[in-house]
From TrEMBL:
Name of the protein in question: Zn-dependent alcohol dehydrogenase
Pfam family, one: ADH_N
A GO MF term: S-(hydroxymethyl)glutathione dehydrogenase [NAD(P)+] activity
One GO CC term on file: cytosol
PANTHER family found in the cross-reference section: ALCOHOL DEHYDROGENASE, ALCOHOL DEHYDROGENASE CLASS-3
Family label: Belongs to the zinc-containing alcohol dehydrogenase family.
Highest taxon of the lineage: Bacteria
InterPro entries reported in the protein's UniProt record: ADH-like_C, ADH-like_N, ADH_Zn_CS, ER, GroES-like_sf, NAD(P)-bd_dom_sf
UniProt-listed CDD domains: Zn_ADH_class_III (cd08279)
Record keywords, A-Z: Metal-binding, NAD, Oxidoreductase, Zinc
BP-aspect Gene Ontology terms: formaldehyde catabolic process
Length: 365
């Protein structure tokens, strides 16, 4: 067991508290990672503000990169000193869903997450929860070997962390989830970290039009840099009417990257007949959708969801890292600012500002 520093959420709606915690030794399939950089994702905020329930105290944070420090006795593919990012949905690799390439739907998740002892404890020995069995706002974390991907030397850790959540989620939703075809038309509602990654995915997929929709003009300006060909500010105009005015009968694919019933319903309304709406934003617990049933029959529309890139994160992250090396996937541009660990709460405040795509925290600074 080691002692390290973590940002702990002790109370819903309260700031994170930088505190010493204890981290258990790695179990046979686990790796202890010295965390260097973590991106601030809206999913962390969902837990911090209570829109998604969590036990307390908890260490949130999941968009993570770092350096392997110690490995469990059964680990074969990683060694101390390896630079890594997360492939964050733990999976057994052997159940029917894992075998079929849908690791995000592993049926043995509970079993995989089970540990002999708590991974994190307070210094006086009380267990601390970890968001999704990760808890990346800690200078040291434990992840299973198959939840890590080695990063090439020329992918800096402060941008490499984005690959583990917003990039694999957004670009994965385009290629694995909706399977966007070259020449097709795409709309993206919400242009934060995840939406910007979807826009880049649509550009890489060869979409002939990419319509970015947000409530903030600065986010829309940045969206053009990532590959949007059209922008609509939903605060000034009805996005459905505006999009139909610009693109006729609608788009082939509409992605929702906000997390609300209203924007999910808008995604379906933006589609042309036979189009696919893909929900990526996480709506508050208990949210229900109200959608016109006839859209599915007479217009043959499809409504799907995509979680963490739809299940092939290890392979995809390695490929997306190569696209970054070739200059085709923009990561440096997405990191608006790198803040020292002590300023993590300011970082969550700054996320609300339109000139931010992603704030990254340097846990060693
Ligand atoms: N499916 C997954 O696997 C997955 C993974 C990561 C994040 N998420 C979820 O994706 C969502 C986006 O995450 P993020 O980190 O990019 O958030 P973010 O805070 O960086 O960006 C959200 C964006 O949505 C815009 N927005 C808010 N309301 C809007 C509206 N009504 N119409 C248009 N735009 C609006 C904001 O201006 C902002 O640009 C969150 O709900 C997050 O929890 C899902
Ligand atoms: Zn995330
Ligand atoms: Zn499985």
């Amino acid at each position: 067991m080691i002692t390290t520093r973590a940002a702990v959420l002790n109370e819903i709606g309260a700031p994170l508290e930088l505190t010493d915690i204890r981290v258990d030794d790695p179990e046979p399939h686990e790796v202890r990672v010295a965390v260097t950089h973590v991106g601030l994702c809206h999913s962390d905020l969902h837990y911090m503000t209570g829109t998604v329930p969590t036990d307390l105290p908890v260490v949130v944070g999941h968009e993570v990169a770092g350096v392997v420090e110690a490995v469990g006795s059964a680990v074969t593919s990683l060694s101390p000193g390896d630079r890594v990012t997360g492939a964050l949905t733990p999976s057994c690799g052997r159940c029917a869903n894992c075998e079929a390439g849908h690791s995000t739907q592993c049926t043995r998740l509970e079993e995989v997450r089970l540990r002999q002892r708590p991974a994190f404890e307070t210094v006086d020995g009380r267990p601390i929860e970890r968001l999704a069995a990760i808890g990346a706002f800690s200078q040291h974390i434990l992840l299973r070997e198959n939840a890590l991907v080695r990063l090439p030397d020329d992918v800096p850790l402060h941008v490499g962390c984005l690959l583990s959540c917003c990039i694999v989620t957004g670009v994965g939703a385009v290629f694995r989830g909706a399977q966007v075809r070259p020449g097709s038309t795409v709309a993206v509602i919400g242009c934060g970290g995840v939406g910007s990654a979807i826009i880049q995915g649509a550009r890489l997929a060869g979409a002939s039009a990419v319509v970015a929709i947000d409530l903030d003009d600065d986010r829309l300006k940045a969206a053009r840099g990532y590959g949007a060909t059209h922008t609509i500010n939903g605060a000034d105009a009805d996005p459905v009417a505006e999009l139909h005015r610009e693109l006729g009968d609608g788009v082939d694919y509409a992605f929702e990257a906000v997390g609300s019933a209203r924007t999910a319903e808008t995604a379906l309304a933006l589609l042309r007949p036979t189009g696919t709406a893909c929900l990526v934003g996480i709506a508050p617990m208990g949210t229900e959708l109200k959608v016109p049933a006839l859209d599915f029959f007479f217009q043959e529309k499809r409504l799907i969801g995509s979680y963490m890139g739809s299940g092939q994160a290890r392979e995809d992250i390695a490929q997306f890292a190569r696209l970054y090396q070739q200059g085709r996937l923009m990561l440096d541009e997405m990191v608006t600012r790198v803040l020292p660990f002590a300023e993590i709460n300011d970082g969550f405040e700054q996320m609300k500002s339109g000139d931010v795509t992603r704030i990254v925290v340097d846990l060693q600074a």
